[in-house]
Amino acid sequence: MNEAEFTLPELSDGLRDAEIVQWHVAPGDTVSTGQALVSIETDKAVAEIPSPRDAHIARLCVAEGDIVSVGATLLVFGNAPLSVRSASSAAAESNLKQALASPAARQLVREMRLELEAIRDSAPQGAVSPGDAPLFAAAAPAHDPGTSVRATMSASAFATLPVIIETAINGATQPARNPHVPVTVEAITRDAIACLRAGAAIVHTHAPLGDFGLPPEQAAARYFESYRAILAAEPDALLYPTIGGGSTMSERLAHIDILAGAGVLRIGLMDPGSMILGWAGADGAPSHDSFLYINTFADMETALAQATRHRLGISLAIYEPGFLRNALVYWRLGRLPPGAMIKFYFGGDAGYFGSGQGVSFGLPPTAKALDAYLEMLQLAGCELPWSVAVMGGDLFETPVARLALERGGHLHTGLEDHLGSGQPDNVELTRRAVQLCNEVGRPVATAAQAALMLELPRITAAASG
Asked: Exposed, middle or buried: residue 52 (CB in 10 Å: 0-12, 13-18, 19+)?
């Protein structure tokens, strides 16, 4: 009796290992061409491997739960010509590539009326995961210019959109409050790279300690030193700084002009409103020295003009509901550039500066507060991507983090924002965000995917200079 080994075929580029999830045959069975032999799971999908021919199963060579590599013998066919091994592997490889899309991914493709083959061509390594369908749709031109892709997504498709994690690694938080906050160019660079590798797609940085208020050329040089090193290590990284010093908005944003011209930025920023950033005095009342943060409509238009001029996306920091109303005016007028993203900054008990309890800003991080913001977007018909953050609190100890993921939003974390138990570093906070995404069942966007979702232009060659 001739026997022939049947091996794990090539999965697709870059995928080498798979777990045996379930056998659909047993020794002694007779199978027909195309019948499912075994279900396997890769890091991209669950797939069934079909039989390449009519055959008899002599024996199984691996057990459910085993991890096997491409080329490993899965089973032995009996009563088959010796040449079946190479032929079966080739046929199974072709069939497997056609099948390499999880059931959830196939369902989303059907719901969104997309072509699986087209998505597979653009999916990493040719394997379609649930997150690839909405990502493909978000990047594809709409057939009707008046209909957004998000409006055509079902709730299940929307909930599997990859999550953009942004880590704001420094800012008002001082080393006395958390010794892990990076305050030098070298530490900022290390932290940013580590956070990107832990799952962040966007990293927001402030100037090194003591550098705020430097002339724009000097401030830009300090940022550039760090950003160039980060991009050398992680070329797809999405980075952006904070505003600088100056008496006018043009002066406060001048370093961004320089950095954009140097090719290290794809994102700008606008804070669309004014407020008091306060802290508690010795008696617990708001300090008379609290900071009046003013952004006039002229200031906002200066920031918008800069983003348009340099083809930057724009980060819209929403500290108060009025900030969102202002942003929506510019959105309705078509003045926001591609890549605009709304950041809901909820006020934690300690406020932005984390210097005392009870003096904060904006809406608290509750379900009703998030609903209020989302209702404002819904009433306006605005479908810009949005994220949640808690300034002066612990995002992951509030309901808004999980609710945001369940409702199609994204996450903003990092030591600029965080004040909670313990003294985590930025990488730990990034990993908490990734863990929550995993628990909810949404994939985490890479920086390259985030850029695609936000429709950001490619970075220029000047960044490597």
From this structure: buried
What six digits make up the tokens of 161? Answer: 């959109």
How many CA atoms, within 13 angstroms, populate the side-chain half-sphere of residue 387? 25
CA-wise closest residue to 166 among 429, 464, 452: 429
Determine if the pTM surpasses 0.90. no
7 and 65 fall within a common domain: yes
Whether residues 202 and 306 share a domain: the answer is yes
Domain end, chosen from 71, 99, 127, is at: 99
Which residue, of 99, 115, 139, is where some domain finishes? 99
Whether 19 and 90 map to the same domain: the answer is: yes
Query: Looking at residue 82, which CATH number applies to its domain?
Result: 2.40.50.100
* DSSP secondary structure, 373-419, as one string: HHHHHHHHT----EEEEEETB-GGGSTHHHHHHHTT-EEEESTTTB-
Residues 362 and 267 in one domain: yes
- For 213-234, letters b (16+ CB in 10 Å) and e give ebebeebbbbbbebbbbbbeeb
Reading the block at residue 429, the tokens are: 């906070």
Q: Which residues contact 23 (CB under 8 A, 6 or more apart)?
A: 37, 38, 60, 64
Nearest by Cα to 342 from 363, 373, 297 = 373
Same domain, 182 and 46: no
What are the two backbone dihedrals, phi and then psi, of residue 339, each rounded to the nearest 5 degrees? Answer: 95, 5
Phi, psi for residue 238 in degrees, rounded to 5: -105, 115
Furthest-apart CA atoms within the chain: distance in Å = 93
Q: How much is the mean pLDDT over the chain?
A: 85
Q: Which two tokens stand for residue 163?
A: 């999550």
Per the structure block, which two tokens stand in for 9? 């075929």
> What would you report as the CA-atom Rg of the chain, rounded to the nearest whole angstrom?
26
Residue range(s) defining the domain that contains residue 386:
162-464
67 and 198 inside one domain? no
Query: 175 and 69 in one domain?
Result: no
Helix or strand run (H / E) with residue 60: strand 55-60
Determine the Cα angle at 135 with ends 155 and 389, to 5°. 70
pLDDT digits (tens, 9 = 90+) for 161-200: 899 999 999 998 889 889 999 999 999 999 999 999 999 9
Q: Which helix (H) or strand (E) is 202 found in, with range? A: strand 202-204
* Predicted pLDDT at 92: 46
